[in-house]
Design brief:
Layout: H1 8-11, E1 17-22, H2 26-32, E2 39-43, H3 53-65, E3 73-77, H4 86-93, E4 100-103, H5 109-126, E5 134-138, H6 143-146, E6 159-163, H7 167-173, H8 187-203, E7 206-209, H9 218-231, E8 235-238, H10 244-250, H11 255-270, E9 277-279, E10 282-284, H12 286-298
Parallel strand pairs: 1-2, 1-8, 2-3, 3-4, 4-5, 5-6, 6-7, 7-8
Antiparallel strand pairs: 9-10
The structure holds coenzyme A and magnesium ion (MG).
Residues 19-22, 27-28, 31-32, 43, 46-47, 211, 239-241 line the site of coenzyme A.
Length: 303
């Protein structure tokens, strides 16, 4: 997340690993709460069957009321606008303890503004500090979303993160598959991934890569995370506890990365009148300085 983001509360939310937990499973919640995820996304949407939606809402309300000690952000994925369930979901979960809401199947900034307005009223009603509840979106799940990305160039209040998904988009389009035989995304879904990355950059929020479905394949997850981090994603959605350690390690700069970033920052600080310097026979200029500062900011080192 850029260090100059005006919404400071957002900068306080660490978003490397975000684990989905179906809201109607006490067993999974118990399992998830001590495993090192930066955020749990308690899911009211697709992992909860329609007959259990009301029960699941009640369970989330109870979890929030329990005020358990935790070192992770408490996020809830609500049902999408258009499902007829969103307002009841929000009314049940916007209460003290909730840190954020993940909105699925958004079509652009207008949807975020609408939810934000609902949350304004619900925060006041529940005695929550105005603006505390942040928003994250799944930005690529509808065809309309794919042609509405320019709306993110105007930053939205409350928005702190953006992720993408290929399954619902594929279903909406009637695609037969979203993967090549070698496991890579087909072209339309590479576009969705890249659009999410660019839109998050334009909005100044965290770009979070989509889930890695094969939760027994640690090597595949690590390689996929390496590519995500290389491209600019700062964290990732998880669906299984076993994925958290790999994701955290991949999206945390290594000792060598940090040492190098400190060197770059120090070299520019030592000579404020130059825009380009050489270190170990390689050219460094402003983009390198920005990258170095970003790496240090991600470990809380003020620059
Ligand atoms: N959160 C918390 N605990 C989880 C978990 C999750 N997302 N996924 C698995 N676990 C638990 C299991 O309950 C099991 O616990 P136990 O030992 O107490 O029985 C343990 O981890 C091992 O699980 P495992 O047997 O490897 O997997 P599974 O077959 O039980 O579950 C899924 C597989 C995919 C159903 C499960 O990982 C899951 O529910 N993921 C989240 C799905 C979701 O929320 N999707 C919405 C976003 S796409
Ligand atoms: Mg979905």
């Amino acid at each position: 997340m850029p260090p100059d983001r005006p919404d400071d509360a957002a900068a306080g939310m660490k978003l490397r690993s975000l684990l989905f937990v179906p809201a109607d499973s006490e067993r999974k919640f118990a399992k998830a709460s001590g495993i090192g995820a930066d955020a749990l996304i308690i899911d009211l949407e697709d992992s909860v069957a329609p007959p259990r939606k009301t029960l699941a809402r009640g369970m989330v309300k109870e979890l929030l009321g329990a005020e358990i000690a935790r070192d992770w952000a408490f996020l809830v994925r609500v049902n999408p606008l258009g499902s007829g369930l969103t307002i009841e979901d929000l009314a049940a979960v916007v209460r003290p303890g909730l840190d954020g809401i993940l909105i699925p199947k958004v079509s652009g900034v207008a949807d975020i503004e609408l939810i934000s307005n609902y949350v304004d009223a619900l925060e006041v009603a529940a005695g929550v500090t105005p603006g505390h509840v942040k928003l994250l979106v799944v930005a690529t799940e509808t065809p309309a979303a794919m042609i509405g990305f320019s709306s993110y160039a105007t930053p939205s209040r409350r928005l702190v993160g953006m992720t993408w998904g290929a399954e619902d988009l594929g279903a909406a389009l009637g695609a037969l598959s979203n993967k090549e035989p070698n496991g890579e995304w087909t072209f339309p879904y590479q576009v969705a991934r890249a659009q999410c990355l660019f839109a998050a950059g334009a909005a100044g929020v965290a770009a979070l890569d989509t889930l890695y479905g094969d939760f027994r394949d640690q090597a595949g997850l690590a390689e996929s995370c390496r590519i995500a981090r290389r491209d600019g994603f700062v964290g990732r959605i998880a669906i299984h506890p076993d994925q958290i350690a790999t994701i955290n390690s991949c999206f945390t700069p290594s000792e060598a990365d940090i040492a190098h970033a400190r060197r770059v920052v120090a070299a520019f600080a030592a000579d404020p009148d130059v825009g380009t310097i050489g270190i170990d026979g390689k050219m460094y200029d402003m983009p390198h300085l920005i990258a170095a500062k970003r790496a240090l900011a991600s470990i809380g080192e003020g620059v």
